[in-house]
Amino acid sequence: MKDSVVAHLKKRGFIDALTSEDLLVRDSSPFKLYLGFDPTADSLHLGNLVGIIALTWFEKFGHTPYALLGGATGKIGDPSGKSQERPFLSYELLEHNIGCIEKQLIRCIGHPLIVNNDTWFKEMPFIHFLRDVGKHFRVGSMLGKESVRSRIQSDEGMSFTEFSYQILQGYDFLYLMEHHGVTIQLGGSDQWGNITSGTELIRRVLGKPAFGVTFPLLTRSDGQKFGKSEKGAIWLSPDKLSPYEFYQYLVRVEDADVIKLMRMLTFMDMEEIRRYEKQMNDPDYIPRTAQKRLAEEITRLVHGPQALETAIRVTESLAPGSQTKLDAQTLESIAHDMPSCQLLPEAVVDVKLIDLLVNIGLQSSKGDARRLIRNGGVYINNEKIEDENCSIKSNMLIENKLILIAAGKKNKMLVRIS
User: How far apart are CA 247 and CA 302, in angstroms?
Assistant: First the structure.
């Protein structure tokens, strides 16, 4: 017998909690569900991809996913998981963020049904909201929510504005059930309190069952959140993080995390995932094989096949010690997919390499730069530099205008000479 979508997601490690185990047997018939996206930035990040994948799995099993954009709730700010109140964004910036996120959702999911909660909240008078919605919420229960309790006990406290957030999100669920027939809300584990506010509101107002499903937040084996790097968030937008850098981040994930990410961020068959898990314990396993497969799947999903092809080509061209001959045309074609800077000739030619490494931000100090060179970790145009007193000569410049410098395997900089 074919698994239900919930049972399938449980096997892949998606399910953190269910409001009712009835969902395991109820989803034989098609239903509608939704997941909210907070427009606090003009791009989603790697952590948001868990929800996107979850929505797509439900669609693959014949159900109808809705993506809810928080045009109204974004004006308030979700206090869940926050130690202090978020700064308010201008309405113009929120609209811009919503437009950007909508494009990303369409690219990743295909054609989801997208709704914006500002559509119904902007027409609702405040007194009507208090009288017809607020009366169904009990302050005692609201105070008991973890997102509220932890903040009230802090020095920062919590404003009434933030306190009302769970009412707004609860009403979203009620509105979507009444107007679209949505019966399930998805969310990260930090959304449990907001989700149960919605299921309880529906029970009180409509006397109908509604369900909540949470998935675990994306964390590394050391307990830290995924989706962060030394340079910041791992954005899904190519304007904020190039497909090459996105691909590179995934290629570098730890062995302890790669199988989990295959289960949660790809549509790879579980049999294939188990084969990689087995191979990784084999003494003949080639390091990073599983990571490369993971990076290919996720980069293709987020950025498309052409961007993946470019990311792989850039990776092969920029590998330290690579036999790929570098020329200006090759470097110019991939320049927008990697970190770069522009310097005057006198800031490069006849300048000591240790000084240049610090000046372009590849090393934090001359001492660190010197030690990295001694350890064989610095490359110029893919050739290892072993002389710690090396200075940049004009013949090192590719066609007198470009030079590629690598500090270790992770950090590279294309320097343009203007």
Answer: 10
Q: Residue 114 in contact with residue 69, Cβ under 8 Å?
A: yes
| φ, ψ at 402 (rounded to 5°) | -140, 145
Q: Cβ distance 291 to 252 under 8 Å?
A: yes
Other C-beta atoms lying within 10 Å of the C-beta of residue 225:
14
Report the candidate in 90, 95, 49 with the shortest Cα–Cα distance to residue 71: 95
Among the listed residues 305, 317, 319, 297, the one whose alpha carbon sits nearest the alpha carbon of residue 253? 297
Compute CA 281 distance to the chain's CA centroid, rounded to the nearest angstrom: 28
Token pair of 221 as six digits: 């084996």
pLDDT tens digits along 219-245: 888 888 776 655 678 999 998 988 988
User: Rounded distance, CA 294 to CA 319, Å?
Assistant: 19
Q: Name the nearest CA neighbour of 77 among 143, 147, 128.
A: 147
Q: Do residues 265 and 49 touch, judged by C-beta distance below 8 A? A: yes
Q: Is 70 in a helix, a strand, or coil?
A: coil
Residue 383 main-chain phi, psi, to 5 deg = -105, 130
Count Cα atoms within 13 angstroms, Cβ side, for 283: 0
| Total-model pTM | 0.81
- Give the sheet arrangement for strand 378-380, strand by strand: 340-343, 411-417, 402-407, 378-380, 383-384
Bridge partner list, 398:
402
Query: What are the tens digits of pLDDT across the range 150-174?
Result: 788 877 788 888 888 899 999 999 9
What residues contact 331, with CB distance under 8 A and at least 6 apart?
398, 402, 404, 414
